[in-house]
Write a structure and sequence with these properties.
alpha+beta, about 35% helix, 13 helices
Amino acid sequence: MAKDKKFVESITDMELDFPQWYTDVVKKAELVEYSSIKGCMVIRPYGYAIWELIQKDLDARFKATDVENCYMPMFIPESLLQKEKDHVEGFAPEVAWVTHGGDKKLEERMCVRPTSETLFCEHYANIIQSHRDLPKLYNQWCSVVRWEKTTRPFLRSMEFLWQEGHTAHATAEEAQERTIQMLNVYSDFCHEVLAIPVVKGEKTEKERFAGAAHTFTIESLMHDGKALQSGTSHNFGDGFAKAFGIQYTDKDNTLKHVHQTSWGMTTRLIGAVIMVHGDNRGLCLPPKIAPTQAVIIPIMQKKEGVLEKAEELFKSGYNCSQSVIGAFCDDLGLDFNTTMKLSEGFGGGMGATQGVCGAVSGMFMVLGTLYGYDDAKADDGVPHDQSRLCKRHAHRKQAERQTESVHSPKHERGY
């Protein structure tokens, strides 16, 4: 621990003050900045790049289950919100209200969406007429506002980014099947991409989403021993359908109410990744959501051929955007430990160090530590059992395999 503290003095020891450690990491890694609006955050480019990679993977998984993207309005009229009693009572303390348009008072106040069930229900009531119109499988990527009293970056803020899926089905069985299907999509995503193990289960009646018949969740365990709700999937039954008059004509020519689901994940996932994989050296990201997966660092830039070889590596497949390897070439003439310190805190999957031997032989060193960068001083070249110090030919396929070797042990540590 003393070694870690000496290496990164500006990050509080997580064993001493976990909440402060978390704040130090998100600030030092330049993921967010506090804004002048209390409870709101500025997501900086590196933090947003992580969210884009999460969004890209999740969106592909949704579409593989026939989900379509759409977009609903930001504002909800009060009369629409009032249609489902349990729903409005559950969200009333968190709602932000718009009462004026310019200097004119509105005839009916509108809330800034805390969630979009009522909007989707109004839309479905307008477009669903027959069993041939079902199922409806919609999702939207947007922001929502909830007037939180206590906030923390990514974990709980007044405005946050998320996706919310809303589906309508002909039968209760189809709705339940979709509810569990999306819960499993979330669980698989956390395992396969975030390297976070989760526990799936159903919330108690008291903990259910406002207006839901059943709420299922995935929970992940953080470094401090606390569980974090990381995704939810709700079965609404036909409660919302009855409140909003969402009916269809079935094959037997009778009118029936649809059965609905809703499911969502938020930028809270970034907070989960920080608290599961980070350590006292700062942010550490699973390679699949790391905006920069490899760092190519020429150690002795004054030696002949070093910078040229580093540049060659950079241009030969390591600068591909949002693919397997995102590269950064730093041509500072610094010693090994100092160059590693340039990379700590930003959570790249691997560091590639280019020295004289590498420049001459066409080889380079790949350092892929799972929870920060270590200097390789152990007798066998492996600092600890979760690190990899490997000599690799400078081409992309072998680097791809290296990112996978970094990702898998991360997941194992989560257990």
